[in-house]
Structures are given as structure tokens and as C-alpha cells.
Design goal:
InterPro entries: EmrE. This protein is mainly alpha-helical. Helix content is 78%, strand content 4%. Helix 1 packs parallel to helix 12 and helix 2 packs across helix 4.
């Protein structure tokens, strides 16, 4: 339950991304600057955090020993996540990008077979491929129906080009973000904490962000002071606070695929925060009846995920207790 609350808090801070990215695009800012500035601004904050905690040497050592996985999965988890999202903001409103992004709750569930887990058998520990948790998948699809209901009233009058440019990049991002996050958890295998992992992934992608920033300078010149300020806000709110909260939540359940899917499903609440933000900032109209019904579906889905997670935890505890009893019964009697 604690990890799901952290996930919901993270989604609230993540919502700032969709709102301010759209704001920057409406004011004429380049998506190339919006994407690169966020991560470049994150670097000094993360350096300070890791230095204060006195564990930078460990991060650099891990990266030096295994550079290719760090470069690959950091690129997948950060660059292929955020660059497409900022690009999509240039072609569609925040609600469309945030709504499409909710595919990540299903994507995270479907990624299970790409990972292995250790199982104890009579012949010892063996690694087996994880299975798709169909109960979590069903609940995630239920939440996705609520997201779709929210989008229906807003989708009227949109061109095919706007829908394609605003959706396809976000679909790519929706799969790359959980994939990169999970693969990096697998690479570090608990040797680094969340702050170290976010710092390492950010440093690993700095060369790419510098290239994107250079492309932004060639294409649009220097960013405006407004875009710089808004990018800084996004870097702190979404890049530092939200990312660390979300990664802490996923780290807590990294060895349990079903619970991990439940935590990733908390990102569905971003739609609610984005909708509220656009009403307050852009004076967007109040949600239609179908959108309100969709909100209700999302809330019910999150409750179901919580109950499912609690049930899985209780069953796991019972199995562990039963295993302990069996072990005690198998031990020889000692006086």
C-alpha cells in the first residue's frame, strides 16, 4: 500500500511535465530544448544529492564495470521516453499526451516475459521466465477504459495528423520507460539505491541531451527565458521529485512482477492531475459527463489494484509461513 501511495504522489509531480510542455509549445518553444533542458538541469541537483550522501564513487564504479548496459537502458528509459513525449506536445494538447501515456500501465504488465526470476526447486535455484500477471493486466485494461472515456469528449474535431503525431511517439515512450527502468533495476541488482540509479542513468544520457540541445540551437536558436524557467520547474518537479518517488516505489516491489504492475498502474492518475491543471492554468472547460464517469472508473481500478496487491501480499506471507512450518517439522528433534 505504501508503494502505491508513492506512485500516486509521483504521478502528481509527473503531471507538471504534460502541462508545462504544452505551455512551452504554445508559446513557441522548441521541443528539442524542452526535452534536453529538463535532463541537463537535473545533473547538478543529482550530483549534489549523491555527493551529500557520499556514495558517488560506488555509482561511477558500477558504470565503469558495466558501461554498455548502462548506456543502452538509460537511453531506452530516459531518451526514448522523454524526447517522444515532448515531441508529441507540439502536435496535441496535454490531455491527449497524458491520456495516451496511460498505455504504460498495460505496457508494464506485458513486459514480464522479457525478464527472468529465481525460483527455488528441489534441485536448487533456477531462473525461469516471468509470466504475465493476467489479474493485474485485466485491472490495468479496466483503468485504461476509464482513460479512454475521459478522452472521448476532447477528441472531437481533431485531425488525423494531429492524432498520429500526438499518439505514436507517446506509445513508444509508454513501453520504453518501464522497460528501461526494469532493465536498470536488473543490471544494478540492488547494489545501488534509487538516487544513485537515477544519477547514473542521467549521466549516461548527457551526451545525447547535448546533441539534442545542439539541434535545438540550430533549429530555433537559444531558448526563451520563459522556456528555461519552465524547463527548470519540470526538471525539479518531474525529473527529480517524481522520478525518485516512482523509482523508490518500483524498487520496493522489484522482485514481485504483479505488485510492480500495480505500482506502474498508479500513473493512470496523471490524467486527473493534468485535467485539473489545464482547468486552472489554461481555463479549460469542466469535464463532460462521460469524462466524470471515466474518472470514476480509474478510481475503482486503483482500488482494485490495491486490493489485488494486498491479497497477493497476504497469500505470499501465508506461503512463507507454511514453508517455515514444513521446515520446522522436517528438522530432527533436539532436546
Amino acid at each position: 500500500m505504501k508503494e502505491m501511495m508513492l506512485g500516486i504522489m509521483a504521478s502528481m509531480f509527473f503531471a507538471v511535465t504534460f502541462i508545462l510542455n504544452r505551455s512551452m509549445e504554445l508559446s513557441g518553444g522548441s521541443w528539442l530544448w524542452s526535452s534536453s533542458l529538463r535532463f541537463l538541469f537535473m545533473v547538478p541537483f543529482l550530483v549534489l544529492i549523491v555527493m551529500v550522501r557520499r556514495n558517488m564513487k560506488q555509482v561511477l564504479s558500477e558504470m565503469w564495470k558495466n558501461p554498455l548496459p548502462w548506456l543502452l537502458w538509460s537511453f531506452v528509459g530516459f531518451v526514448l521516453f522523454y524526447a517522444p513525449i515532448t515531441y508529441a506536445a507540439a502536435y496535441g494538447p496535454g490531455w491527449l499526451v497524458a491520456g495516451t501515456w496511460q498505455l504504460t500501465i498495460v505496457a508494464g504488465t506485458l513486459l514480464g516475459p522479457l525478464f527472468m526470476k529465481e525460483v527455488i526447486t528441489n534441485s536448487g535455484a533456477v531462473k525461469v521466465r516471468q509470466k504475465i500477471p493476467f489479474r493485474s493486466l485485466f485491472i490495468s485494461l479496466f483503468i485504461l477504459c476509464g482513460v479512454i472515456l475521459i478522452q472521448i469528449p476532447n477528441a472531437e474535431g481533431m485531425s488525423v495528423n494531429m492524432i498520429m503525431s500526438g499518439i505514436i511517439p507517446v506509445v513508444i515512450a509508454a513501453f520504453c520507460y518501464p522497460l528501461g527502468n526494469r532493465k536498470m533495476m536488473e543490471v544494478v541488482d540492488g547494489r545501488l539505491d534509487t538516487f544513485q540509479r537515477v544519477f547514473g542513468m542521467t549521466i549516461a544520457t548527457v551526451p545525447i541531451w547535448l546533441l539534442i540541445a545542439s539541434a535545438g540551437f540550430i533549429d530555433a536558436g537559444l531558448p526563451s527565458s520563459s522556456q528555461v524557467l519552465q524547463s527548470l520547474i519540470v526538471a525539479i518537479s518531474s525529473g527529480i521529485v517524481a522520478t525518485i518517488l516512482f523509482f523508490i516505489a518500483t524498487d520496493m516491489v522489484r522482485n514481485h512482477h504483479g505488485k510492480l504492475a500495480s505500482v506502474e498502474a498508479t500513473q493512470s492518475t496523471q490524467v486527473l492531475f493534468v485535467m485539473a491543471g489545464e482547468i486552472l492554468i489554461f481555463s479549460a472547460p469542466l469535464p463532460a459527463a462521460s469524462a466524470l464517469f471515466g474518472i470514476g472508473v480509474i478510481v475503482i481500478g486503483m482500488v482494485l489494484h490495491s486490493l489485488n496487491q494486498a491479497g497477493m501480499g497476504k497469500l505470499r506471507s501465508m506461503n512463507e509461513a507454511a514453508g517455515s512450518d514444513d521446515t520446522r517439522q522436517s528438522l530432527p528433534f533436539q532436546k
